[in-house]
Amino acid sequence: MTNLYHNRSAQWIVYALMFAFLAAIPLITNDSFLLNQFATYGVYGMLAVSISLSWGFGGILNLGQGIAFGLGAYGMGMTMQMQSQDPVSNPIPPFMLNNSLDHLPALWSPFQNTALGFILSLAVPTIFYVFFGSLMFRARVSGPFIAIMTLAMLTALYTLILDMQPYTNGANGIAPPAPLKLLGAEIDPYSVASYWIVYGALLFVTVASKLITQSKFGLVTQALRSDPERVRFLGYNVASYETIVYALSGLIAALAGCCLVMLVQYVSPAQLDVNFSIGMVIWAGIGGRFSLIGSMLGAFLIQGGQSYLGDQFLATWLLLLGGFFILVVRFLPKGLAGLLELSLGMIGAHMQPKDASRPQRGAEATSKAEA
């Protein structure tokens, strides 16, 4: 009897149950604060899926996922800010006037169009990942060197946004005065509508990522994670596969950044903070980086614990989280999802008939003859 954990039908059933539960949340509670909080967890879930796709399935340890997340968030923040500006009588955001700018910078002009602003919020981070990833992977950068390079690029971008205060408002960030306007209606960040938008994005991202991992592209990607040289000798362009999976993870993170700004109406360099990007890796590591839904549940568990236990334990919470992560890495290298895999494997072994593993005499003889 095979391990039920690896059964594709069973996996899809678990995904269906998970999203059915998430869909029932607005039916269970109408508390606007809780809905906003659960929607924020959905954003974290998207980030965890993006890390699982790049690190768990592609073998690319990206410690700079905040690059795509931050760029997407700033793109959405700029779009929402320009929705509140009158293009004729008041085209310049107040913080630019405070920084002695007397005209709208060309960088901001495309975001006057809402649709174009959405497209740029997703396209710019993705194109950046394609360019930066192509440079890394064509040079055959791998392992910890990828982590170092992505971390260095994240730090550089963080510093750049801080220094460009007249255009980004520096450490103060951008706080659009009004909610997002979509299709002629305002999306209240504490409404059921905002929850459904994030839920739909999370559902699409997770299902699409799952289908990708089960496709031929996904199988090749998982193979190069284990042995890229062997995959290269088989005739596959390893750099192209790595670049694509890296860019897809960036696209997901950029979408998460857009959703977060819609929920909080604020974006700042904190979205590009190194600790936050490393936290994403911790979510996936604890939940199980080889499992999309495991990584997602890891994000829910860690961020939920921080919300409800962080205030109680204060700085001690970080020590608890660090200790928990060390224990998981040491004893559960596949995370909590690996514990489920091990448990289901043991159950399957106990349910297997005792003589099922014994070959019949005829088969045994045939096997010996073939040998």
TrEMBL record:
Any GO molecular function: branched-chain amino acid transmembrane transporter activity
Any one cellular-component term (Gene Ontology): plasma membrane
Source superkingdom: Bacteria
Compartment list: Cell membrane
InterPro entries: ABC_transp_permease (IPR001851), ABC_transptr_urea_perm_UrtC (IPR017778), LivM-like (IPR043428)
Alphabetically ordered keywords of this record: Cell membrane, Membrane, Transmembrane, Transmembrane helix
Membrane topology annotation: Multi-pass membrane protein
Transmembrane portions of the chain: 12-29, 41-61, 115-137, 144-162, 193-212, 233-264, 276-302, 314-332
CDD domains from the UniProt entry: TM_PBP1_LivM_like
Segments of this protein annotated with the region Disordered: 352-371
Record Pfam families: BPD_transp_2 (PF02653)
NCBIfam families assigned: urea_trans_UrtC (TIGR03408)
Name the record gives this protein: Urea ABC transporter permease subunit UrtC
Species annotation: Methylocella silvestris
Lineage: Bacteria, Pseudomonadati, Pseudomonadota, Alphaproteobacteria, Hyphomicrobiales
